[in-house]
Design goal:
Elements (H helix, E strand, L loop, with lengths): L3 H14 L3 E2 L10 E5 L2 E10 L5 H14 L2 E9 L2 E2 L4 E5 L2 E5 H10 L5 E4 L2 E4 L3 H10 L4 H8 L3 H8 L5 E2 H11 L33 E5 L7 E5 L8 E5 L5 H18 L2 E6 L7 E2 L2 E5 H6 L3 H13 L1
Helix pairs in contact: 5-6
Length: about 300
């Protein structure tokens, strides 16, 4: 069995070979690696056993994915019930969890899984349009088709309208009856459409007064991310904030801040009080806390960040 470190390097090699820009590997937080290709951003976390993820880390991972408009995915080898099967999606705290081979099939061959593992067995999403088209073509009622598939009329109605998933056995019966594919692929690589509400923190360094929602982090290589509440078009800010750190520590923190901001297309910034530190640390702009209080809107803040980044 692979070690977790080997898994991470295999994932990194797979993604870079297919044109993804990848971050460095961060294996102690709510995610291990971020990858981007065009508009697609992946936020990935690896475990040998996918049951190792806890609710707090999963919550932070989902919140960050929402802010960066990224797809969060857990990559693992096994669960408490055994090895993860190829082509099957397992979920942990509403985050899809898959094996490396499933990820590989998606990245290399555009082959997406159909099967969801859940309590009670394996399930698939039925293409209701195929069901409806078949019934209309052969002048069949819901009850007629339900009888052939050994389910109730109400269940067939739910399949046709995408209300419930079917178990794999029923899907196979339907495919035999219709002589066509009735299951839907699940594209884990597309930009997520439905976003859960981001639970922003209380006011942090006056950013909220400029219209930002601020998400403080505990398990990430940065202290907080800030996003304009009124727009998805503006790039998020990825910030390290004042915590009485010395300049040597701040320089060390600037490296992942710059790295991750480039992959997520966010603006890196330090927000600190120390007057001895100049306008940047490495190539990351520094905004003093007193300066932040003087900005009247986010445009003034972003202008200063970009000026200091250029300088």
């Amino acid at each position: 069995m692979l070690t977790r470190s080997q898994m991470l390097h295999n994932i990194e090699n797979l993604l870079t070979s297919q044109g993804f820009k990848t971050s460095d590997i961060y294996d102690q937080g709510s995610f291990d690696i971020v990858a981007r290709k065009n508009l697609l951003i992946l936020l990935l976390k690896t475990f040998i056993n996918i049951d190792s993820i806890n609710e707090h880390n999963a919550h932070e991972m989902k919140q960050l994915a929402n802010i960066f408009l990224a797809s969060p995915i857990i990559i693992g080898e096994k669960s408490r019930n055994g090895l993860l099967e190829e082509g099957v999606i397992y979920e942990r705290y509403d985050i899809p969890a898959i094996g490396f081979e499933t990820l590989k099939n998606m990245i290399l061959y555009n082959e997406y899984p159909e099967i969801l593992a859940d309590r009670g067995g394996y399930f698939v999403k039925i293409d209701g349009n195929v069901i409806k088209q078949y019934r209309e073509e052969y002048s069949m009622s819901l009850k007629d088709l339900a009888s052939l598939a050994h389910v109730s009329r109400a269940t067939m109605y739910k399949y046709e309208n995408g209300i419930v998933r079917a178990n794999t056995e029923t899907a196979m019966i339907l495919e035999e009856i219709l002589n066509t594919k009735v299951t839907l692929d699940i594209d884990l690589l597309k930009q997520p459409q439905q976003k859960e509400e981001i639970k922003f923190s209380d006011d942090v360094n006056d950013l909220s007064k400029l219209g930002y929602g601020v998400l403080s982090t505990n398990k990430s290589p940065f202290d907080a991310v800030a996003k304009m509440k009124s727009s998805d078009k503006d790039s998020p800010l990825m910030a390290n904030v004042e915590k009485n750190r010395n300049e040597k520590t701040l320089k060390r923190m600037a490296i992942p801040l710059k790295d991750l901001s480039m992959v997520t297309t966010s603006e890196p910034v330090f927000i600190i009080n120390n007057d001895k530190i100049k306008e940047s640390i490495g190539t990351v702009p520094v905004i003093k806390s007193w300066e932040l209080k003087e900005f009247e809107n986010s445009k003034e803040l972003l202008k200063m960040i970009r000026e200091r980044k250029e300088n």
